[in-house]
Design goal:
The complex is a heterodimer of chains A (524) and B (209). Chain A has 19 helices and nine strands. Chain A has 524 residues and is an alpha/beta fold. In chain A, helix 5 packs across helix 6 and helix 15 packs parallel to helix 17. In chain B, strands 7-2-10-11 form a four-stranded mixed sheet, with no helix packed on it. Classes of the chains: A alpha/beta (524), B alpha+beta (209). The interface between A and B is large, with 46 and 45 residues.
């Protein structure tokens, strides 16, 4: 219990500055350009930059003269220096982006259950990236590279697997053999293949995986790194010398943050720390798995209502729904949810016109019932704006929105919101409906805001009916900490609907039969 | 914030973040605040063998496949050595070194490092074999090379050459180096075994012994 409380406090402490950073970057770049929302895709983009620049650098690298070949390359202002700088900075940016991505997934509780494979492959990707960086710095064979090699060899020699200590190769009594640099180069070139395989596994459980950031952001990131590589060229550190003990070395702190600590530790302790950290990271899916009733349950399909239209199959962000043959003699197919892949995001709740699929208690029918009950408390809803807000994002600002006159209904995800609920509210006589969604790239259910917009404005099943007055509807993509933007969207809608004629009010709107089942469903 | 200001602040922030990244990519990492030098004792060499050799008779050779007809078969282990390192009379290391590997049949790999104050010092390094080694088989039982067609004379000659080469490669029973040395601040004095001259030598950054 104490551990849970501590973990909760820790998560809250980290979440606050991250939310503030999100809000700040949203103001500067807009949610489309917020690099924190695109951390995963930026990491992949940097990997592509690394491959492109690495292939070029490989043409000039010589295992027989590693330092001299890199120095010659660095001395070439036009075709070498900036390429090496970009290669280095892209590798650093990849690691930073990976760390941000992992932190976001952890704080958004997207690390357990069906996402276990993604988390574990993510940890392995990070480990391989660190190893890739290690071999890259050793390739240069400057003071820093030698320090990394020495420390790696020292730790490796603690394992009783090699008859000849690796450290001997760097003692200085003989030149470091070319075979070492060849092996190091081979590993450096081969590891990206492993990265590719792990990346494929990493995204294998999501539908329509997005691997690259939007082009403006992609080219902005590459451009800024390129600019820095040109205006602040990467220098060459002194060549590795086994006969000197440098007081300090110019180091890449992203990849060698551990060096000052491990140098002071016994290799056995280093191995123990590495094992604990690695096992701890790999155990995150089980450590963060909600227990008992707090664990979201997978979606289920009401086989009576399912028309086999395939919309939920298309919308599921995790490829968790399949169509299969019916056993009741009806000619259509029927949807079936794979509970091992379903993350209980609830996107399918809003994709089903007959409201026949979704997690228990969060189906379209449940939303409609809950809204109907809540609105029954009042006769006159004129002058009122209903705010449907994602409870993980702008919904956290419910009190501020309520203070400004919004009638706030928190939803699990804006992408879960069934269009029938929107229609119902408007036909009951509210002045307007404001849907506050997380920005599309920050949706913890991946595609909620995208499908929401298509359902409201682009006729995607289950679309908002044409009879609904769109002038009374607004969708705003707002980060959780961007309270001002949420309030501005509310104020804008309020001022817009004031100018409209009074809506026709229905005491108990009868929604289209397609959107509301006439009889309670069975067999859920 | 006007769009222009926001664009300027956004661009500046991005550039600032990239510059921070570039700085962290090259920021100095302090490895040691000490001016101490280092004595590094490092080499690898094949130790002598403590083994018992048996010269097989023609009858014994006849019982084994032709490709395994080795006249002299030796079994044993690598010799152990005592490594002693002294600086100005102070013992820095006094230990037994053996061949590497699970069966200790690999070369001896020595790698010891001793931080030391810079300046002049008397350094003594010695390596002394602890085990007694029997005379080589070619001295006690040299085949006559006329083994009734079981081992060709050429093969026995090659066997002898191979045994001789191994013995020649092995470290001498005793090695020692005793000399006044000077170690500069933050520099390394390497004590290593020179397999050509079969002696211990000292090397430093300027290559001088």
């Amino acid at each position: 219990m104490a551990g849970t409380t501590l973990a909760h406090r820790l998560a809250t402490a980290v979440r606050r500055p991250l939310a503030a950073a999100d809000a700040g970057l949203n103001r500067l770049y807009g949610w489309r350009g917020n690099p924190l929302y695109q951390s995963g895709t930026i990491a992949v983009a940097m990997l592509l930059v690394l491959i492109a620049t690495g292939l070029w650098l490989l043409l000039f690298y010589r295992v027989g003269a590693p330092y001299e070949s890199v120095a010659r390359l660095t001395g070439n202002l036009w075709t070498g220096n900036w390429v090496r700088g970009l290669h280095r900075y892209a590798s650093d940016a990849a690691l930073v982006a990976t760390a941000v991505h992992a932190l976001r997934m952890l704080l958004q509780r997207r690390s357990w259950g069906p996402r276990t494979l993604a988390w574990i492959t993510g940890v392995l990707l990070t480990g391989v990236t660190l190893l890739l960086g290690w071999t890259g710095f050793v390739m240069v064979w400057d003071d820093f590279g030698r320090q990394l090699a020495l420390e790696g060899a020292r730790v490796l020699d603690a394992l009783p697997v090699l008859s000849e200590p690796v450290s001997r190769a760097f003692a200085g009594d003989r030149p470091v053999p070319n075979a070492f640099f060849f092996l190091n180069l081979f590993i450096h070139v081969a590891l990206p293949l492993l990265l590719g395989l792990l990346l494929w596994l990493h995204v294998s459980r999501v539908a329509r995986a997005v691997l690259l950031p939007p082009r403006p952001l992609l080219w902005s990131v590459v451009g800024v790194l390129l600019l820095v590589a040109v205006v602040w060229p990467l220098p060459m550190a002194p060549a590795a010398d086994p006969f000197t003990l440098p007081a300090s070395v110019p180091a890449d702190w992203f990849y060698a943050f551990w060096l000052p600590v491990t140098r002071l530790l016994d290799p056995a302790v280093v191995w123990a720390v590495v094992a604990v950290v690695a096992l701890g990271m790999l155990a995150v899916p089980w450590l963060t798995r909600p227990g008992g009733r707090r664990r979201p349950i997978p979606s289920v399909v009401d086989r009576q209502l399912c028309t086999g239209c395939e919309q939920c199959v298309q919308d599921c962000p995790y490829d968790a729904i399949r169509l299969e043959a019916r056993s009741d003699g009806r000619p259509t197919l029927v949807a079936r949810v794979d509970p091992l892949r379903c993350v209980s995001c609830g996107i399918c709740s809003a994709s089903c016109a007959p409201m026949g699929v979704g997690p228990l208690g969060r189906t379209g029918r449940d939303q409609l019932s809950e809204l109907r009950a809540a609105m029954a408390a009042r006769e006159d809803w004129s002058g009122q704006v209903v705010v449907f807000a994602c409870q993980y994002g702008p919904g956290t600002r419910a009190s501020a929105l309520a203070a400004e006159g919004g009638w706030v209904r928190q939803v699990d995800c804006a992408g879960n919101l069934h269009t029938s609920a929107v229609e119902y509210a408007i036909r009951r006589g509210v002045d307007g409906v404001l849907i506050l969604s997380c920005p599309p790239r920050d949706c913890r259910n991946r595609e909620g805001p995208v499908w929401l917009e298509q359902r409201l404005y682009h006729e995607r099943e289950a679309e908002l009916q044409a009879r609904v007055d769109r002038r009374r509807l607004r969708v705003a993509y707002v980060g959780g900490a961007n309270e001002d933007e949420a309030l501005a969207a509310l104020a804008e809608l309020r001022s817009a609907v004031v100018r409209l004629e009074r809506p026709a009010v229905e005491d108990e709107p009868s929604l289209d039969a397609v959107c509301e089942p006439s009889a309670p469903a069975e067999g859920i | 914030m006007t769009p222009g200001v926001r664009r300027a602040v956004g661009g500046g922030s991005a550039l600032g973040a990239a510059l921070l990244l570039a700085w962290l990519s090259r920021a100095p990492m302090r490895l040691s605040s000490s001016e101490a030098g280092l004595i590094r004792v490092a080499w690898s060499a094949r130790p002598e063998r403590v083994e018992r050799c048996v010269t097989r008779t023609d009858e014994e050779l006849r019982d084994v496949p032709s490709h395994m007809r080795q006249r002299v078969v030796c079994e044993g282990r690598s010799a152990r050595y005592r490594l002693l390192v002294r600086r100005d009379g102070e013992v820095l290391a006094d230990e037994v070194v053996t061949g590497a590997g699970a069966r200790q049949d690999r070369p001896i790999y020595v790698l010891r490092e001793f931080p030391t104050r810079p300046g002049a010092m008397r350094l003594e390094v010695s390596l002394q074999r602890l085990d007694s080694v029997a005379p080589g088989p070619e001295r006690e039982a040299d085949g006559d090379g006329q083994a009734a067609g079981q081992t060709a004379p050429d093969r026995e000659r090659r066997e002898r050459q191979e045994r001789g080469r191994r013995m020649g490669e092995a470290m001498p029973p005793a090695l020692s180096l005793s000399a006044e040395q000077r170690i500069g601040a933050r520099s390394v004095l390497l004590i290593t075994y020179d397999p050509e001259s079969r002696v211990l030598v000292a090397r430093s950054a300027d290559g001088s012994p």
